[in-house]
Amino acid sequence: MTAEESATRPPVFDPFAGAPGPDLAILKRATELIPLLREESEPSENARKITDRAIGALDRAGLLNVMVPKRFGGPSVNIRTLIELIAESERGDGSAGW
Question: Residue 13 pairs with which residues in a beta bridge?
Fold first, then answer.
């Protein structure tokens, strides 16, 4: 999703807190990577670092730059999205949330 597309999407609001909810499109991309992250978890553990394959997949999914401001071409997600993105990535491999 481009920054322009993200900017034109209506926000999702948390009905409990009345605050912006998470960006569901970004969380969906993280969910789709869970099988790959699980597959790479043992090689990552053995190498004592997350594998290049896992990092590449996270990068291609646009999940490594989620806090880049929109004025610099990033999605500039809210904190709720960031927290849920970390948690969702960790479902695949705990190291991927770092």
Answer: 20
